[in-house]
DNA sequence: GCCGGTGTTCGGCGGGGACCGAACCGTCGG
DNA sequence: CCGACGGTTCGGTCCCCGCCGAACACCGGC
């Protein structure tokens, strides 16, 4: 017995609005946003945004956290982020960069950025390739961790996270159109990379990352530094 | 540069209508339907269905084939089917069976059925488990084919299909709530199973399959026949 | 050529929902 | 206590779009 058409339609309807879609895409950076920020981002009145957020939270797409007078919302979980990414990949059409300012920002984001809670951009794709070349991941069919890879992740990121989230996930990169490493281990790797200063957030450019020399060595190996 | 909110919203809007969702879900059986059949299935006038189909074909979700006076439509490809399945899994809510007739049909479908172009139901889940137990698939992290598995698939299904479609894909089963085997090899396995008479279509119940004794042996091994 | 069946086009109706502004409520800070 | 600020509620407007029926176009068969 499949999903009912009604519930599928209702669910798709959540994203079938420009403002709500805009908010969800913004939240793909993995951070919590306030209602006002999202209103400004989507270009609608605060009242309108408030109603949209109530809908999305009610449907379980977002979770909220009240803090003083602020209402913070974020994506309800990695599954939601994954669904958004996949749907976005299928939707296909891209925004066209317009000003020089945005072109520069886009270039930084294309180089290295976060994708929800893992690495993306040229760096993210290179990391996946490097891990595969080093025999730590198996990409011959689907994506899986090799025994050597399990040891490596345990050594670098600490004990493997448990839970229902798949350890590795091939996440289609929006700029590279090739997969990068998502899943629980992808998230753990980003956490380690930030702690170890392999990558640093770029001030004023929320999702962008700057790669340090040590980071290039640790993440992609001695040879594969340049994109 | 992410997908634009507008294009994501537009795409989601395609499924955000009860009638269109109903048609797409019907088409998940992998067959081509005529416009009239889909109109009846969705419970709308032929004229309405015609408009919906024009929209879906125009957006690339469906492809059409004119044949005489009939207009056949089907899903544009496995990616679309996969996206529908994932979205449906996330949407969650299920239809409630209503009459005895449908309960019986549901029971057959829960036992063994096709899911677009591969095996599903208790059988599908059992096949995945059996292949993993025999060391032909690796499920410890994600889903991947082992070297032994590659040899087995080549022997049983012929040369491995090439192309961009991922060889194996964990497809969440609607009735079992556990993954079964999708992807190119999943499709090849169903093709073989039909050719070898391991499973037979059930007359009058489109997606249902009956498992033959040889099929149970070949697909799930000597021990794991009963559900 | 006529007829039945299938699909499409068009006009018109109706409902849902996205949006805003104004008023209001809470919280924080002086 | 008051003002500033973030968020919410409510009425009201507007428009989009899903739906139908009627008329029409097309194909196939007798």
UniProtKB/TrEMBL annotation, chains A, B:
Ranges of residues in domain HTH arsR-type: 1-95
GO biological process, one term: response to cadmium ion
A Pfam family assignment: HTH_20
Lineage: Bacteria, Bacillati, Actinomycetota, Actinomycetes, Geodermatophilales
Top-level division of the source organism's lineage: Bacteria
GO molecular function: cadmium ion sensor activity; DNA binding; DNA-binding transcription factor activity; lead ion binding
Protein name according to UniProt: Transcriptional regulator, ArsR family
Organism for this UniProt entry: Geodermatophilus nigrescens
InterPro entries per record: ArsR-like_HTH, HTH_ArsR_DNA-bd_dom, HTH_Metal-responsive_Reg, WH-like_DNA-bd_sf, WH_DNA-bd_sf
